[in-house]
Structures are given as structure tokens and as C-alpha cells.
From TrEMBL:
It comes from the Bacteria. Residues 6-63 form the HTH lysR-type domain. InterPro entries: LysR-type_TF, LysR_HTH_N, LysR_subst-bd, WH-like_DNA-bd_sf, WH_DNA-bd_sf, YidZ_PBP2. Belongs to the LysR transcriptional regulatory family. This is LysR family transcriptional regulator. GO terms for molecular function: DNA binding; DNA-binding transcription factor activity. The keyword ATP-binding does not apply.
Length: 306
């Protein structure tokens, strides 16, 4: 196949259809009409002598050949984009970029308000999409470009994924006002005797406090497992159950509930979160600037000098 006779724009269309699973959605993303996308797909089908995508009840499903091609196509497109970013002049006031960042509840409530206050006036063309991503999908998503960054606990990644610490926060215990056993503090014996609400986006698995207790040969009684810290705070406010969470999350999720917020009976245990990105974006000036703003927003306040 003679590359000089191939319209490379077709591969941009191919990647958009693969990612979005829809000709209409691909057209919206690329600012093309549906007929233009369909025409590009017809040319790709002729080029590869394969349907590439077949319509089903959920949209356009890739064929086995399309699933093979997408890896090299994305790598090639990302390589070209990185080359352009290296040579492009980065001007905060005029740069238009969209960044997809994976983060969990309620970290988006913690990060986005100060981040947008910080970058809004300086970079009006930069937009941010905060999304949920399964932990197992973080590295593949950073690799294929569907994610620009991710914020999560320490996870195992290849050398192609870089990370930096973004948050270190102590844990606190929440109990309702007027709790029959807890007033102003909670020791470990009392903590273990109570029923607990565990917050996790996963269906199963231990939390960091359960892992720590297990290592010490102890367990607690988890009565409820839910996905949102706000829901856990509401449950605690109407029952005698306890919930444990990072202190910064409690300041957000507990605002309306006014539960007691108490130091956890394991003071050395902290939630550690990290910012992840693919190594290829190290030379992307806009992405590097945004990472710096995220880390600055989450940096602990400086101690006053006397």
C-alpha cells in the first residue's frame, strides 16, 4: 500500500468511530456531517477490504480487524499530536484544549472549584471533564488517549505511566450527634464494637482501614457498603452506625449532616492519592501546565514563618 495515496484524515475518522461507537457522535466530535463520516468509512472499508464496523443495537461495533488496527492508529495519531505540541507555541490566553481526568467521589468536589478559580481567568480555552474510570482501565485509557490524567491511590503501572503525590490526608470517624456510645472522641475498642458504613466504588474488597485492622488481627462489622460519601454521612446521621473517611472528604460530604467528626483511632493511617499521566505528555506544555496547577491546588498550606 502506497502511503502517499492514502488520505491520513481517514484514520482520524476511524479513531473517532471506534471510540464513540457512533457515526453521528463521531461527526459531532470532528465537526463533520453524518454523510461525510459515512463516506470516509466507506473509503476505509475499501482500503482494508473489511467492514471495520458493523451496526448492532448499541451502535457501531468494531470488527476483529478494527480492534487490531486501533492500537497502531492511536499510537500514530498520538505521536503526531505530540510532535505538533512540541513545536507549537503555548499561549495560555489562546490555547484551546480539552482534558479528561479520572477521579472519584468526592475528589472532584475537592479539586475542581479551586482549580477552576485558579485557571479560569488565565486559560479561558481550557476545559476539563472529570470522569470515573475503573482502576484496571487507568493505564490502558492513558495509553489510548481517552484519559489525559488520573487521580487514584497507588497502583501498579508500567514505566510509561508517570505519577506524583497529590494528597496525603488523615482519616476521621463520623458519628451522629447524640450517639449513645460516642461523644467527642472514639477509642479503638468502641470503634470495633460499632456497626459501620463502608464507602467504595467497587463491589467488593477491603478499604484501607480494614486492611490496617486485618494486619493487626482485628476486624470491624460492616453493615452497609455504598458508593458515595454523602450517602454514608446521611446514613450515619439517622442511625448509630459509624463511617470512616479522609478528613478533607468529610468537610465536603458532612456539611449538611453535621455529624460528629472525630480523629480515627489509628492516627498514622492516611489516604495517599497520586496524579498519573502518560510519559508522552511530559513535553506537552499545556498538559504540563495543568498538572502543575492541580498539584499547586492540592499542596498543603505553608506554615507561617515567625
Amino acid at each position: 500500500m502506497d502511503l502517499s495515496r492514502v488520505d491520513l484524515n481517514l484514520f482520524i475518522v476511524f479513531e473517532a468511530i471506534f471510540t464513540l461507537g457512533s457515526i453521528t457522535a463521531a461527526g459531532r466530535k470532528l465537526h463533520l456531517s453524518q454523510s461525510a463520516v459515512s463516506h470516509a468509512l466507506a473509503r476505509l472499508r475499501q482500503l482494508f477490504d473489511d467492514p471495520l464496523f458493523e451496526r448492532n443495537s448499541r451502535g457501531m461495533a468494531p470488527t476483529p480487524l478494527a480492534r487490531i488496527l486501533i492500537v497502531d492508529v492511536r499510537n500514530a495519531l498520538q505521536s503526531m499530536e505530540c510532535t505538533l505540541q512540541k513545536t507549537a507555541r503555548f499561549d495560555l490566553s489562546t490555547t484551546r484544549r480539552h482534558f479528561a481526568i479520572a477521579m472519584g467521589d468526592p475528589f472532584d468536589s475537592l479539586l475542581l472549584p479551586p482549580l477552576l478559580r485558579r485557571i479560569g481567568p488565565a486559560a479561558p480555552g481550557i476545559s476539563i471533564e472529570a470522569i470515573y474510570s475503573d482502576r484496571r482501565r487507568v493505564e490502558p485509557a492513558l495509553l489510548d488517549g481517552s484519559l489525559d490524567m488520573a487521580i487514584d491511590v497507588l497502583i501498579s503501572t508500567s514505566p510509561d505511566v508517570v505519577h506524583a503525590p497529590v494528597l496525603s490526608e488523615p482519616l476521621v470517624v463520623l458519628a451522629r450527634q447524640g450517639h449513645p456510645d460516642i461523644d467527642g472522641s472514639v477509642d479503638l475498642d468502641t470503634y470495633l464494637k460499632q456497626a459501620h458504613v463502608q464507602v467504595s466504588s467497587r463491589r467488593r474488597g477491603l478499604s484501607i482501614e480494614d486492611i490496617s485492622l486485618s494486619r493487626a488481627g482485628m476486624t470491624r462489622q460492616v453493615r452497609v457498603r455504598c458508593q458515595r460519601y454523602a450517602a454514608a454521612c446521611r446514613i450515619v446521621s439517622e442511625t448509630d452506625m459509624l463511617t470512616t473517611m479522609p478528613a478533607c472528604f468529610a468537610r465536603i460530604a458532612n456539611q449538611a449532616m453535621q455529624n460528629q467528626v472525630l480523629p480515627a483511632p489509628f492516627p498514622s493511617l492516611r489516604l495517599e492519592l497520586f496524579l498519573y499521566w502518560h510519559v508522552r505528555s511530559d513535553n506537552d506544555a499545556a498538559a504540563r501546565w495543568l498538572r502543575e496547577q492541580i498539584l499547586a491546588c492540592m499542596a498543603p498550606p505553608q506554615e507561617p514563618q515567625h
